[in-house]
Amino acid sequence: MSLRQIPKVLILFLLFISFILMNFASADEVNYIYDDAGRLVKAVKGTEGFIYSYDEVGNLLSISSSTISAVLPVLQDISPDIFFSGSTASVTITGQNLFTTKEVSSDNPSLSIKILHITDTEISAEIEVSTEAFLGGVNITVATLYGSASIPIDILKLTLSPCTAHLLAGETEEITVSLIPARSMNLNIVNNNPDIIAAPQSIQIPVSGTASFTVQALAVGTGILEIEKFLSTIFVTPSFTGYASISSPSVSVSWGLIQNAFMESKPVSVMWPSVNNAIVESRPVSIEISD
Question: For the residues of 168-222, what is the DSSP string, one character each?
Answer without folding.
Answer: ETT-EEEEEEEEES---EEEE-EES-TTTEE--SEEEE-TTSEEEEEEEE-SSEE
